[in-house]
Amino acid sequence: MIPALWHSILNKNKLLPPSEKLISVVAGPTASGKSAFALKLAKDKKGCVINADAMQLYKELPLLTAQPSQEEQADIPHSLYGILDAGERINAARWCILAKQEIKRCFELGLHPILTGGTGFYLKALIEGLSPIPDTSDEMRRNSLAKARELGSEKFHQEISKFDPELTERINLNDTQRLAHGWAVYQETGKPLSEWQKLPKTPPPAEWKFDIFLILPEREKLYERIEKRFDLMLENNVMEEVTNLSRRIDKNEVERDASIIIAHGFRALRGYLKGEKTFEDARHIGIKDTRHYAKRQFTWFRHQINDDLDNIKSVEIVSP
Question: What is the pTM of this model?
Answer without folding.
Answer: 0.83
